[in-house]
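Response to reviewer comment R2.3. The reviewers asked that we include at least one raw input/output pair. We reproduce the pair for Peptidase M50 family here without editing.
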Amino acid sequence: MPLLNVILFFVTFLTTTAAGALQAGVNPLSSLTAFTKGLPFSLTLMIILLFHESGHFFASKYHKVAVTPPYFIPAPSLIGTFGAFIKIKAPMPNRQVLFDIGIAGPLAGIIVCLPIVIYGIAHSRIIPSPTPPQGLILGDCLLFKILVKIIWGSLPENADLMLHPAAFAGWLGLFVTALNLMPAGQLDGGHIAFAIFGERGHRLISKLTLICLISLGFMGWYGWFVWAVLLIFLGLHHPEPIDPTLPLGKGRVKLGILALFIFILTFIPVPFKI
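Raw output as returned:
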């Protein structure tokens, strides 16, 4: 593995651990013991990101498409990272390969994310709701709400669930899955949409996604404006594979429907409130 990838992975592990320690209410620079308080968050988040990118990586290797190892991005932020990505260095040979590489990341990510979320929710604790609300309030996707309901039942009135670090990392994993599955541009969902609907269908769906993001920005979370700008900057266009005529087959179309179902279950219209 190239040295740069190893260094970025190690630095991202350090920044996510520091972020986890800060979330635990300790100064990560005060001592090694304080720093290790961030490990429950950093280890689970890094595993989720690694599985997601490994899905893309191994699918690319299986189809003999040239690809880089994952690049992790450290960041001085609440979670210590801007995520991870791989770079595909060759054009896609056909729609089947495009589909497989696009869907492999979200599927691998959600498979490892689910048990982490379940463990984290089960080890969270119920606390009285502060009045007025304080700090950063997380929105919940349908899947997270369902799992909380199954594990905890109905929460008492005027009570909140204080998330275990693994639950927060899992929440982020679900959110990242939804972001990647947005059917626009060259996101994972954009690859899937292009493979299923072709160039015209992809272009229309990308534009509709952009309109939806701008609308959501006015409705609750301004971060969707940033995502809309990023999509415009990166481009809504998707390059055609070398052979755009090879059909997907019913099996891949069914997997595409599953990806849509996962997107609906993990998407959060208003992910953050202050």
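Residues 3-273 form one domain. Strands lie at 71-74, 81-85, 125-128, 137-138, 159-162, 272-273. Further pairs are available on request from the corresponding author.
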